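Re: the request from the purification team.
They wanted to know what the chain is likely to look like in 3D before they choose a buffer screen. I agreed to run a prediction and write the result into the notebook, where they can find it.
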Amino acid sequence: MKNEYNQYTDNNISGEESEGQTKNSSEDKSNSEINSEINPEINSAICSSSSENSSDLQNINAETEILKSDKPEIFGTPEQSEIYDSSEQSEICSSSEQGKACGVPVQGKSCSFSEQGKIHSPSEQSEIHATSNQNDAHGNSEKSRHKQQNKKLKARTVIARSLCVILAIIILTVLSLLSIIFVLERGPSPTARRLFVLSVKETSAAGFLADIFLSDSEVDEILNAQKKAASDSGEHTDTSLINIPEKNEASSGEDTASVTDDTQAVPETYNPADTENPEGNTVSSDDGIEIIEIKKNTYNGVIIKVSDPTRITLGIPDEYGENAAGLSLSQMIAKFGAVGGINGGGFYDPNGSGTGGIPDGLVISEGKLLWGESGSTYNVIGFDENGILHVGSMTAQAALDSNIKYACSFGPTLIVNGTPRGSRGGGMNPRTAIGQCADGTVLMAAINGRSLVSLGATYDDVTQLMLEYGAVNAANLDGGSSSLMIYSGEILNQPASMIGERDLPTAFLIK
């Protein structure tokens, strides 16, 4: 049966090579007779194969067009097209003749007679498969590249959105702060206006906030009123009001701290009709040191009580001047072998960048004038050789004549000879102050400020606090970001400085 099929094919081919129309007609008839003798089963198989080939041809053509449109770099060259077309044309031509025999119309690419018999060698087939594999690999590479691009795009989108959110938060925060400042400066309360202006003007860097919604004349009016209230009348300390008892030699020794009720620490001069009860916990020690935690409505802080005033000394750096720098409180404590202390006088501090090398006012140490002019008047805060605290306005020479051994300058003076100096005003800020009771006990206070839990204290607040604990004489020291208290290596207050301990020109230390 295979020979009969081959005979049919040979006769069909020879019929196509004949030269005349008549001969073609007679050979077609002969072929028809042969075909009628072929086994019907073979004829059916051939026709079925022709139909399948025709369907495959349509699928191949469709896939080819898709691949050409997606991957022109693979099918764009004539060589690649020839490889692909030759492979397909071989099948197409075979299917074409079978379709003619079965009467099945052939769709797709046409092929010449010479291409019908073309057979691809194994090497050509391998090249075709290699091209297909390259196509797949390139497609995977393209997908991977697109995924990476999508990831980068998503990351950029997230960053951009985050920046927008941060910017919006900053804008809303600034607008909120401006609204608060406007209410304080232009609101109905003159007290709130005065407190705000004085609070920011007492700082080194935030003073400009007072000028946002107020004119220069309005700000100057508030500042001039404050300056007048804080000025000293020239009254000096009456040393006869301070009676220091004889030293108790048995009081020396190591600290044995214990917590006691704060009501035991109420000074004898405390008058419940004029002041509030002191609040907080008192830690007592056998060496004559008491540490008291205080808490008021608008501020909190710490007080150190030193029963022996002769233990107070003044910490200073090695030198002063434009090219010199101060020392931190911790460094001064270590230098002088002290157990604790507080910051002292002011210093030149433009925009909060001062180094503590240039004191504000005078400095007296060991009875010698280290900084200032002897004939100039200063607001003096210092201890004489007997441990009595002197406060008030005086010349440097007058301070030396009063046998003042350790002194620095700041202010205002809060209490002189048991009498408050009147309303001192001031803004709400961190404060440091020093005072002395009638029995010689020294009060060192550090008040926290510029935080939500402790806004800060005014000068009047500090005056009231000193009166509560029995101060006869008291003065305000440098505050703000310089305000600091250290005892036994521990910082007892909450400093407002964001850069750590500041370098200082002076400090009152406990030996």
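For the purification team: Confidence is low (pLDDT under 50) at residues 1-27, 34-39, 73-117, 249-277.
Please add any questions underneath this entry.
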